[in-house]
């Protein structure tokens, strides 16, 4: 009995839906199409996109620029303090990391391979 009642109710619901016209959703295309990522971005994502257009990297999320590591073109190490610990993998296939303290000022050398590193001030974006 309950199954028959449930079946009859569901059949009535389906047939009622077929008779009623369904309103089409044309808002997206009528307003000029699907919005771009820049139009939809808000908050932190929007700040990053604006900075990226200007060529900045405020949150250090993009791949860093490669440097030669010489005294004239040292590896740049950003820091919010006057010193930072740096790890250098001196050879490409080396498994050991040489750790040393890098202080603000002139470029300093890695004690093992001689690559140069320079500490630069980095201000937090917030």
TrEMBL record:
The keyword Mitochondrion applies. It is found in: Mitochondrion inner membrane. GO terms for cellular component: mitochondrial inner membrane; respiratory chain complex IV. The keyword Transit peptide applies. Keywords: Acetylation, Membrane, Metal-binding, Mitochondrion, Mitochondrion inner membrane, Transit peptide, Zinc. One of its GO terms (biological process) is mitochondrial electron transport, cytochrome c to oxygen. Zn(2+) binds at residues 88, 90, 110, 113. One of its GO terms (molecular function) is metal ion binding. InterPro entries: Cyt_c_oxidase_su5b, Cyt_c_oxidase_su5b_sf. PANTHER family: CYTOCHROME C OXIDASE SUBUNIT 5B, MITOCHONDRIAL. This is Cytochrome c oxidase subunit 5B, mitochondrial.
């Amino acid at each position: 009995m309950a199954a028959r009642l449930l079946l009859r109710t569901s059949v009535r619901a389906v047939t009622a839906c077929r008779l009623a016209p369904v309103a089409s959703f044309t808002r997206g295309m009528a307003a000029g199409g699907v919005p771009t990522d820049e139009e939809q971005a808000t908050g932190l994502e929007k700040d990053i996109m604006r900075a990226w257009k200007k060529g900045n990297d405020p949150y250090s999320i993009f791949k860093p620029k490669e440097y030669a590591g010489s005294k004239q073109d040292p590896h740049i190490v950003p820091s919010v303090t006057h010193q930072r610990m740096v790890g250098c993998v001196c050879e490409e296939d080396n498994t050991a990391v040489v750790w040393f303290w890098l202080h603000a000022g002139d470029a300093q050398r890695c004690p093992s391979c001689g690559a140069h590193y320079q500490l630069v001030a980095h201000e937090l974006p917030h």
